[in-house]
Write a structure and sequence with these properties.
CATH superfamily: TolB, C-terminal domain
Helix content: under 10%
Distance between the termini: 34 Å
CATH topology: Neuraminidase
Largest sheet: 6 strands, mixed
Number of helices: 0
Radius of gyration: 17 Å
Number of strands: 22
Shape: globular
CATH class: Mainly Beta
CATH architecture: 6 Propeller
Strand content: over 45%
Structural class: mainly beta
Length: 271
């Protein structure tokens, strides 16, 4: 695969350039919502580390529609979810301090009776040599998309405020680094719209500001001329953890409970 040579330009933040179209509190069972995706016109989410290994269907009003347990599996640190070929893929890859040696993706089929795990895809970062406790590990990740028949992971690099891009495959446990994005923030979620080739990332900075990054015409092919559009969200102090694209101008986001903010679902429009 060609190495991605990405992004000669990072646009200045458009402070509060987005518009909140709708916003709904989520039920208490989802107070640590950490991923979001659309499957068969239904939004699916899950909780963060240490919670039950379960997937939750929610309405576009934030109401709980269904709960599907993943039996014989645990939620070590589920950080994102994506849709691939009609199945859900859950990313158990949270690695806050760089100590984990058991990162994996779970391919899940949703049935009337529950959720069936079809495949478990373990992976590791070949560049990682140190598995000791690291306060600013570059090998933590919270974003996952399905693009061009590939699963693409976005890291949360605390040491450089960049995000590194890794392709994960069930053919080789070594994830393949294909590029880096100079976002200047910590990525918490990702989604990709296949029809419009739009990539959206959620992120935050140490000053508790929340951001969306939008990249048009994104693909796995090398393109040095792409640019990142940055939008500051009017939710300072929240913890935006996930995003699901409606179209290239509108997205759903979820935030876990944080400070004055209960866990919520919101529809955001770009200018």
């Amino acid at each position: 695969m060609t190495k991605l040579i990405l992004f000669s330009l990072l646009l200045a933040g458009k402070a509060f350039g987005q518009k909140v179209l709708e916003k709904y509190n989520l039920p208490l069972v989802l107070e640590e919502t950490s991923g979001l995706t659309l499957l068969n016109d239904t939004l699916w989410t899950h909780n963060d580390s240490g919670n039950e290994a379960a997937l939750y269907a929610i309405s576009t009003k934030g109401k709980l529609l269904a709960k599907k347990k993943l039996h014989n599996h645990s939620n070590i640190d589920w950080e994102d979810i994506t849709t691939a070929n009609g199945k859900l893929v859950v990313a158990d890859m949270g690695n806050n301090f760089g100590t984990r040696k058991n990162l994996y993706l779970l391919e899940v089929a949703i049935t009337n009776k529950g959720a069936k795990v079809l495949d478990s895809i373990p992976f590791y970062y070949p560049e990682q040599q140190n598995f000791g406790f690291q306060q600013a590990s570059p090998f933590d990740a919270e974003g996952l998309i399905f693009i061009e028949n590939s699963l693409l992971v976005f890291t949360k690099n605390r040491s450089t405020n960049t995000t590194e891009l890794y392709v994960v495959s069930n053919e080789n446990a070594a994830a393949k680094k294909i590029g880096s994005l100079p976002v200047g923030a910590l990525i918490t979620g990702a989604d990709y719209h296949h029809k419009t080739k739009t990539l959206v990332l959620t992120a935050y900075r140490k000053d508790k500001r929340q951001f969306l990054f939008l990249i048009n015409d994104f693909s796995l092919a090398s393109n040095p001329n792409l640019s990142i559009n940055q939008y500051e969200l009017d939710f300072r102090g929240a913890q935006i953890e996930a995003v699901s694209i409606i179209d290239n101008k509108t997205v759903w986001i979820t935030s876990e409970q944080k400070g004055k903010y209960p866990a919520f679902l919101a529809k955001i429009a770009f200018p």
